Amino acid sequence: MKRLMFVISEDWYFVSHRLQLALHAKAAGYRVAVLCRISSHAELLEKSGIEVFPWFLERRSKNPLTEWRALKEVRAAIHVFQPDVLHAVALKPVLYSAMAGKSKKSGGRVFALAGLGYVFSSQKMLARCLRPFIVQAFRAAFRNPATRLILQNPDDAQVLSDAKVIAPERIRLIRGAGVDTSAFPATLESDQQMLVVLPGRMLWDKGVAEFVEAARLLQQRGIRARFALVGGRDDHNPSCVPLQTLKAWEAEGVVEYWGNRNDMPAVLAEAHVVCLPSYREGLPKALLEAASSARPIVTFDVPGCREVVVHGKNGLLVPFGDVPALADALKMLMADRAMREQMGAQGRLMVEREFSQEFVAAKTMQVWEEVVA
User: Fold this and answer.
1) Residue 218 placed within a domain
2) Same structural domain for residues 262 and 362?
3) Helix (H, G, I), strand (E, B), or coil: what is residue 260?
4) Is residue 187 part of a domain?
């Protein structure tokens, strides 16, 4: 039986974005383990038949001793499990897996970046200072010619190819983590008051401020609607929106803050329009779930988001950072039920054809077979 180990930062992220892939791997005959930071999902993972290795990773840490301990834990888990395939997801897991996985016991290496993240999307001084160091670290991590790198959109592939991080022929493009189309069924919209939803973590680079400002503009124009921010905060991310800011917006009456929700299919069924004006994505799972639910989408025309939305077909693309244009796009959809229904139906068809979990799992397993062949 082949052994597959995922290395990923958080258990909640694994459950949200990789659990179904792991279950497909088990069904295909793999013995599956995950090394991750445990917060609240250990029991679910163990009930799923997945071996769990706790990882005391601090995503925001820059303490050398803390980072050294995290690296030692990766090495120890690899030594115990001896995977045939090591599949690491996101920045720190990829870099530490590359450093720890140089022995034969580490197996074939598949690294996945779900977007290039804060370091590449932000223009803040910290991100700009870190960027050249991350590029050098990636070059070292991907040096082994047997390594494969999974990216979710062609823009990210071009960025890393141009930076000579990895040879283009070792990049595999797999668009997203897949969506469970049965869990997110197409539903007819409700006859309740118009509801526009932003689904995602409360991060500045998810476009939370732009969404709020667009809602404020529409309300100033006399348009009656509800605008809801739906998603948890992530204090380990430097782009996290402060709780007091969210509460201030809610007190102002411009948006509702719903927090983290475990019933996203019901949330999307209640919504009329989904809006995620993100700055850059790998390929946003939240928008795939919205499309699967037959909801029209408004988003910025940026890497990752433009992979999900075809302008005028299943949603509307807006120039990056253009809040008045964002408000205009929302207004257009809010005023036209027939357009919303037509775009929603097109989005559902697209997800069924190109973004189902079964489709993504099959393509990912092909990459695993490459590195163990």
Assistant:
1) yes
2) no
3) coil
4) no
Residues 238 and 317 in one domain: yes
Is the pLDDT reported for residue 167 higher than 60? yes
Q: Quick check: 83 and 5 in contact, CB under 8 A? A: yes
Give how far Cα 97 sits from Cα of 30, 87, 116, 298, 369, Å: 20, 9, 17, 37, 19
Based on its alpha-carbon atoms, the radius of gyration of the chain, rounded to whole angstroms, reads: 21
| Integer angstrom CA distances of residue 249 from 18, 194, 211, 252, 255 | 33, 19, 11, 5, 6
Half-sphere exposure (Cβ direction) of 222: Cα atoms closer than 13 Å: 0
Per the model's pLDDT, the better-predicted residue between 229 and 40 turns out to be 229
Residues 174 and 317 in one domain: no
Residues 168, 306: one domain? no
pLDDT digits (tens, 9 = 90+) for 102-128: 655 567 999 999 888 667 767 778 778
What range does the domain containing 263 cover?
Answer: 195-354
The arithmetic mean of pLDDT across residues 229-247, rounded, is 93
Angle made by CA atoms 213, 219, 223, in degrees to the nearest 5: 130
Query: Alpha-carbon distance 302 to 49, whole Å?
Result: 38
Q: The whole model's pTM is what?
A: 0.85
Distance CA 260, CA 10 (A): 16
Residue 66 pLDDT greater than 90, yes or no = no
Q: Is the pLDDT assigned to residue 25 strictly greater than 60? A: yes
Q: Which residues pair with 257 in a beta bridge?
A: 229
The span from the CA of 197 to the CA of 229, in Å, is: 6
Specify the number of domains making up the chain: 2
Q: Two tokens at 157?
A: 């592939």
> Per the domain annotation, does 98 fall within a domain?
yes
Predicted confidence (pLDDT) per residue in 201-235, tens digit: 999 999 999 999 999 999 999 999 999 999 999 88
Same domain flag for 325 and 241 = yes
Cβ-based neighbours of 139, under 8 Å, separated by 6 or more: 164, 165, 166
Q: In sequence order, what are the beta bridge partners of 226?
A: 195
Residues 115 and 199 in one domain: no
The answer to whether residues 331 and 362 belong to one domain is: no
CATH number at residue 328: 3.40.50.2000
